[in-house]
Amino acid sequence: MTPASATRALPLAAVVAVLTCVWLPGVQAGVVGDFNHVERCKDSLYMGTPPRGYLSTSFTKICQRYEDKPRFVTLYDSQRHIPMYSAYTFKKSDGEKKVDFPWMFEPQLASDKSSSNMEPFPQSTSMHMNFEDTQAVLEDYADVVLYERGQLNPDEHQADPLDKASTYSLTNVVPQIREFNIGPWAEHRDLIRKRLNNYCRGKAYVVTGVTTSGHTIRRNNLDRVAVPEYLWSAYCCTEFDQNAPYFVRYKFPVFAAYGLNDRVNNHMVEIPLKNMEKFLKGRMDVDKNFQIFYSDCVPDI
Known about the structure:
single chain, alpha+beta, two-stranded antiparallel ribbon
């Protein structure tokens, strides 16, 4: 890594080059216009189709790429510095969390000429200012005691070490109230992990997102990171164990849940997908055709 004293003398373009790999024209990943190719993370989405109906034009589509492989999808708000959702395929997992991975950032949010792979934050914090306008940086979470870094695509829902590592991008993270993060949200995450491990026979697609509250984490007297009001999640698995007990079977092929990101009244509520979409329409800037999964996860017969 180039010493901080040396990089301060470099123009921004040169600093970005130092931070990133050589950009290869034609690599369709990182920040993308759509997700409609395999190399743009299409395989992370049920029927290759992202949630539809978001009205804001300021959101950025990220194909979360790590070690030259597409891993999952994120719709990112570069103004509020949080993901609106991450979409991924669930991998059968033992639920163990890996804590030795470095936190990473998305170079292409700062410059479209940068690497299409997420990269670890430089150790020199003075270099973080080169991309903090477009995304959260480690300093935003450094002195906040109320919040944990909550992954929308959680480490515990992945199995391959590189897939697990890729979940440690701050573009996959929102501020979660600590009591919610380690309590109801963690319990629900493990419940879904066990349910999909035991009863999903095919591929399971998951979308996990947020609604915003108006509260923000501030740093240096600036609004830096929006704090979600609710976190929600939905899964779609069309090939499942038809002999599962009824109390499980009726939650296939698709089901959803939401919880209040707060210290109290933060229990998770499991509901059908249509109820989830109705709940979110009243709390997000989406149109009447808002849909989490293509055709509501009803397979073509």
